[in-house]
Amino acid sequence: MTRRAFLKVAASGAGAAAVGGCVTSGGGARPCARRITVADTGCEFEREPLLRPFGFKGGYLTNIWQSAAMIRSTGGQRGIGICTHSTLWSDAKVFTEHSESAGNALMFAMTAHALRLLKGQTFTDPVALNDVLFEEVYRYGRQITRHPKLRQTFALNALVGVDNAAWLLYAKENGLTTFDALIPEAYRPALAQRHPKAASIPLMAYAIPIPEIRQAVDDGYFFMKIKIGQPGTQQEMLDKDMARLSAIHAALEGCRTPYSASGKLPYYFDANGRYEKKETLLRLLDHAKKIGAFEQIALIEEPFDEENEIDVHDIPVRLAADESAHTDKDAVTRIEMGYRAIALKAIAKTLSMTMKIARAAHDRNVPCFCADLTVNPILVEWNKCVAARLGSFPGLEGLGLIETNGHQNYKNWAAMRAYHPYPDAGWSKTERGVFNLDADYYAKSGGIFAPLPHYEAMFPKG
Questions:
Q1: How far is the CA of 93 from the CAs of 57, 84, 153, 311, in angstroms?
Q2: Domains 3-177 and 189-449 share a fold
Q3: Residue 229's Cα: distance from chain center in Å?
Q4: Which of the following CATH numbers is that of domain 189-449: 3.90.930.12, 1.10.1760.20, 3.20.20.120, 3.40.50.1110?
Q5: Which regions in the chain score pLDDT beneath 50?
Q6: Gap between the Cα atoms of 442 and 178, Å rounded
Q7: pLDDT digits (tens, 9 = 90+) for 260-284
Q8: 384: number of CA atoms within 13 Å, CB side?
Q9: Cα(384)–Cα(401) distance, rounded to whole angstroms?
Q10: Contact of 342 with 370, CB cutoff 8 Å
């Protein structure tokens, strides 16, 4: 599609419906939202080193790119959105075929392509805009990566900063100052809660020592994400995973929490698609039964690669879809295959697509929670805005669920915290394993509408 053709399609809101003279996407923009014309765009990035190699999907990261996207309207308003890149999570094949920097450069090129397309564009609905951008950026991504089957999450990850910038510009142009006001009517039933607390979920990657896991529990964390699917052959992976589960369960024996129905710590395993057969996963579950850990498994996320279209109705634990639920249509497919939870990633699949996925799951009574991408403190707040409003996860009534592991992995986390508009607010910090979401939190929407001097300085006005 040429740029001219793209602009024509996007400006007309292809596949959308006109309501009160405004373009909407299945209930996207509110009637008579202002038409916003993009005068200029820009993008920049910075690398953030990690404390140690971060392992998952059989690979390791050593640094993570943080990009910023700027969209300025003809009226002079600006929206600046942040994105944390994860080539390994988005498409492990692209990651393994390139150096770490080259893989990130490919994703950043897709971000820049989206912003080039936006110049001169007019829109009224960020959801409809994101739908059109996604199709074109995905096409471009397949071209530059030379992967005709590039995973769709690669394009969505590239669009996070662009989508956030579009939402913030939309908010300014329409006088919206809270996340609640920002949510289009069609998605509000799926985001109707206002939890007073959200469980803060840390991530225990392959290299995290057992004593650190126990210390996290002693510090109040109770719902921990544990990476399984370790490197090696399927048998080697299973042996390592069983040994890891045994060691963790032994270290946490006797630990209790007031937040779960049973009082025991819920276990949350993430395989990132490393298990190739159902039988292998069932062997892991048999081992969990043998050591007395089975009843504590709250969920297992993404056990099988999405290309393995395995029906999972007969697996006796709750399975959650993550990477494979690229879009709302993919989420429905996974639910029909027997998945009983969806991991939402507003910080990896865009807020626009996340709202569509949340609605699809809500309509089918499937619970959701928010998973991390090892994002920066500002993106934690975008994810938290969603997690705070989702229905309670089974067995954990009255709590939102949000994974955040940046504090465990970034070398400069303290400096990154300083970029947060409210770094000293109680609701921005984990206390004894939870975020306390008071009236000030909801009034400020986690600070996502506040100025961000560090990132604004990347785009001098003039």
A1: 10, 19, 13, 24
A2: no
A3: 20
A4: 3.20.20.120
A5: 1, 9-26
A6: 8
A7: 989 999 999 999 899 999 999 999 9
A8: 31
A9: 8
A10: no
pLDDT value, residue 238: 98
Phi, then psi, of 86 in degrees rounded to 5: -145, 90
Which amino acid, 210? I
CATH number of 3-177: 3.30.390.10
Q: What is the pLDDT of residue 104?
A: 97
Domain positions in the chain: 3-177, 189-449
What would the two tokens of residue 282 be? Answer: 């069932």
- The strands making up 434-436's β-sheet, listed across from edge to edge, are 203-204, 224-227, 267-270, 297-301, 319-321, 341-344, 368-370, 399-403, 197-201, 434-436
Query: Distance (Å, rounded) from C-alpha 205 to C-alpha 54?
Result: 7
Whether the CB-CB separation of 41 and 161 falls below 8 Å is answered with: no
Query: pTM to 2 decimals?
Result: 0.93
* pLDDT single digits (tens) 380-391: 999 999 999 999
